[in-house]
Amino acid sequence: MKLPIVAYGHPILRKKALDINADFPNLQELIENMWETMYHSNGVGLAAPQINQSIRLFVVDSVQIVESAEEDEKEKYAKEKPVKQVFINAQIEELHGDDWKYNEGCLSIPKVREDVMRPEEVTLTWVDEQFQSHTATFDGITARIILHEYDHIEGKLFIDHISPLKRRLIKSKLDNITKGKVSVDYKMMFPK
Fold first, then answer.
1. Where are the alpha helices (DSSP H) in 18-107?
2. Of 45, 3, 11, 18, which is closest to residue 154 (Cα–Cα)?
3. Per-domain residue ranges for the chain?
4. Which long-range contacts (CB under 8 A, 24 or more apart) does 22-25 make?
5. Which of 69, 34, 45 is nearest to 142 (CA)?
6. Which of 116-135 are b and which e, b meaning 16 or more Cβ less than 10 Å from the residue's Cβ?
7. Which of 157, 164, 163, 161 is nearest to 49 (CA)?
8. How high is the mean pLDDT of the chain?
């Protein structure tokens, strides 16, 4: 089932999400719905707060970015190890490498894109949908998507990483999103 995406301005996007355990009600169904919602919205990651669930859960599919890259971009992704993965109760263990710039967007902040600096690599611990523990290091575009989604479970947004001047320049766009004055081809839930 496709779920509505919570729009910028909704308070859940600014709350630090809570850990869950294997008894969380209807978890497998929620995860399936998150995948369906993400793909329908043309996303590459989706965090539970974006579907109005304040829990430490996000899904990432960087495979589609690498596989759909244009010929002139193929070299850029040649060393990538893309993933399609569910992350539950994730914690960052370490950040590595130089910060690099990439133009990010967010399903909760449609039609706004900005250059964001993030580290090249992230080492993360998490449990998967069977609650098996994992620790791994991710790099490149996969690390970026993970860090973007991780921000969501920490109550942060990608626009928190841009300068105050750039935030002022996009303020009217953000205000319009909060008021529901944005047109997208997926369902959204706007703040009341």
1. 27-40, 63-67
2. 18
3. 5-187
4. 22/131, 24/55
5. 45
6. bebbebbebebbebeeeeee
7. 157
8. 95
Q: Give, for 147, the enclosing helix (H) or strand (E).
A: helix 140-153
- pLDDT tens column, 128-180: 999 999 999 999 999 999 999 999 999 999 999 999 999 999 999 999 999 99
Tell me which residue has tokens 């900005």.
Answer: 114
Which residues are part of the catalytic machinery? 149
- Percent share of the chain, pLDDT over 90: 90
* Cβ–Cβ < 8 Å for 130, 145: no
Cα torsion through 79, 83, 87, 91, rounded to 10: 0
Domain boundaries 5-187, CATH class: alpha beta
- Predicted pLDDT of residue 14: 98
Contact between 120 and 100 (Cβ < 8 Å): yes
- Report DSSP state, residue 52: T
